[in-house]
Amino acid sequence: MRECCWPVCVMLLLLSGCDLAPRYTQPSIAAAPTTFKESGPWTPAQPDDGAYRGAWWKIIDDPQLDALEQRVMSDSPQLAAAVARYDEASALARRARSGLFPQLDAKASAARMRTASPSTGTHIDYRDYAIGASVSYELDLWGRVRNLVAAGDAEKQASAADLAVVKLSLQAELADHYVQLRGLDAQIVLLRQTGNAYDAALQLTMKRFAGGAASELDVGRARTQLASAQSDIEQRMADRALLEHAIAVLVGEQASVFSIAPEQVFAEPPPVPVTAPSRLLQRRPDVAAAERRVAAANSRIGVARAAFFPAITLGGSGGVEATAGTLFSAANRVWALGPAAALLPIFDGGSRSADLDQARAQLNEAAADYRQTTLDSFREVEDQLALINRLANASQREAEAVKAAQRTTQLANVQYREGAVDYLQVVTAQTAELQVRETQITLQARRLTACVDLVRALGGSWETDSGITIGANPSQPAIR
């Protein structure tokens, strides 16, 4: 009998190495270009090699933004929820891995029982005591458990990348709001300065009107211009309040008690070094998450295929049981050893076939999502590079327009005081100057926002010599 068991054991060991999941290959995508199409004269640069690459927002060089970014990482409810999702995925992965090990249970019982004698019909009362342990282990003949573990590990890695996505998105969203808020601060300062100039022009026009050198029409135009500038200030302050409230939510604070002091200083857009596009696939956390979900879906096909084959669970138990006398004696020992369960599927109405088709469809869906994510990642980088380059050129032209508009306003004011032109010429010149100066501030804010969005598109900060670096490895993020 013992000799007959050896072939069976050898066969089971050989079958335990069987894996019904398809061999995993990363979905193919279009070959990455060697350079970004939108790289231009404004993007290449040599960054400071001593700068800390993880805190990418330091490219804006604003201490208050640095402090707010730290608060996002410590107090954001959205980040806390993402951390909880990562912890959940880690727990599910550990649960799947537990199937690789035997399950051991201890048991004890004490019962008072009554039975009837078949021959005499009398009742017999006795007590039954038992103490023992049992062990069970599923033979992973078809790789079901191993594929569950592989799928769980891949989902955990995808969740880690999702956490990195949330972290980067919150940082970028805060930086976007902050840049827009500082842009509004600069516009409010400009409008107040312009309002003071308009008020002085109104006073001058009223004096000229009183002296008969100007018409009431000139006074009306001056009043209209001043009131319009004051209205613009209130609108900008309303927009600023909304951005301030949005930042409060990001840092986990109530909008009613949160405020950011206005500042006149507006950071200059930093130079943007760019590396090879192929590195994008190695550092974008959403690309990493999409690829890991393809791997998880591939492993689940193995789980679905294993359901077509017999499932065998080995079991064993041992202990002591007695109805009388000493419980812990050799005569009261009990044990059992053998297959605890053997399930051979025969007919299920197509349920397992449907599960397999579902698993295959989920793999195709995950592969398509991965390809779409990679295409989107290259497009987003190209978009931001195009904005950075074109807006830099636009800013240069706008600076020339500002100088020309300021000179025109000066000339118009001088000619108006001398009576050479009417006030309409002054209004036209001042309105044009205000527009180009506001556009200059808007362009500066858009360039900063484009830099922030480029960081988001690249998955983190940039580097020229050793490739792009990110603050945290997507597969092993710093989540605490």
TrEMBL record:
Q: Which GO terms describe its cellular component?
A: plasma membrane
- Its signal peptide is 1-21
GO function terms (MF aspect): efflux transmembrane transporter activity
> Where's it found, cell-wise?
Cell membrane
Q: Name one Pfam family in it.
A: OEP
Q: Which UniProt keywords apply?
A: Lipoprotein, Membrane, Palmitate, Signal, Transmembrane, Transmembrane beta strand
Give the principal location in a single coarse category. membrane
As for membrane topology, the entry says: Lipid-anchor
Tell me which InterPro entries the record gives.
Answer: MdtP/NodT-like, OMP_efflux
Which family does the entry's similarity section mention? Answer: Belongs to the outer membrane factor (OMF) (TC 1.B.17) family.
List the protein's name: Efflux transporter, outer membrane factor (OMF) lipoprotein, NodT family
- Organism of this sequence: Paraburkholderia megapolitana
